[in-house]
Design brief:
The chain is α+β, with helices and mostly antiparallel strands. The protein has 2 domains: 42 residues; 271 residues, no CATH class. It contains 4 helices and 17 strands. The strands form 4 sheets. Strands 1, 4, 5, 8, 10, 13, 14, 15 and 17 form a 9-stranded antiparallel beta sheet that branches. Strand 2 and strand 3 form a beta hairpin.
Length: 324
Amino acid sequence: MSRFYTVAALGMVAVSAAFASRIEVGSNTTGGVSTGGLNSAYFGGSFPVVAAGNTAVVERTYATTLFAGETLTSSSLGGSTLPDSPGNQQLTDTNNSVTFGLISGDGVNTYLSGGLGFPGGSGSASPQYTSSISIPVGVFGVDQAWILLNDQWGVNGAPNDTVTFTFTGAGAPAPLVVNLTEGNQIRTVTACGSASSTFTSGGVHGGSTDCTTFATSATNASVAWSAHYNNTTSNSTPFSGTSGTVALSDISFDLSAYSAYTLSNISIADAGTGYDTSRLALSAVTLDQLVAADQLAATPEPASMATMIAGLGLIGFVTYRRRG
């Protein structure tokens, strides 16, 4: 009789396996693996903002913007080469065992950056525009989301960024809004060892010349890639003339309470108010699609259901024969 119980159990295992998958959000995705990432093709040719009046999120290169003037000098959690060098668009966070499909197809070593916009002109005392982007998803049963997200700069403790998850389906709940605080869930990509002696206040960053005031770690985020750097330039960033580390952070979001619905959209926005505010730096998004155990039991695949019925029927038949 134990054989028939085994058949039925195997049928249930098959159901579970059929409903679990890892999805790298982006274009050219096959079997959950994306070779295009969040490139312009995924957005239909342009990167949409959430609300009119915001500065557009634009595509920039790590080397010339996010790591401006910084020469990667030695390997640390990923190597001394940029994270999405040609032919290497798959970046794995070994701490969380999650792989991201980085942007490819629009250029070399690119990410999505918050725009640099001031109503009163660059470097003015006026607040900056908010930058935000809307990422279409349309995936049912998302249990977990990982977002490779940093700020280009941001003062420790500042509530600079917001991530909003929108769900659809019968009885769908209100959007889940998660506020990210510098040093807690999100961090500045560059951690300098000491304040810059060559950067003068103003410019696109404005305000403080002391990069040590920025959040250089995040308690609730994992470092997916990092490298040491040396900056010998005198440029318009607070990191000129400094050395330290650069890192891309993996932020995890638990969506298990929403797995009965379709995740239709993810919106990410930075605050953009005042000097030294963040500019979002988005590299990739990966999702874990997992239907809960009770849902699996309620909606098994037809083939698996047939296997279980056959197994139970055989158990009943053997029991009947023995009683007879």
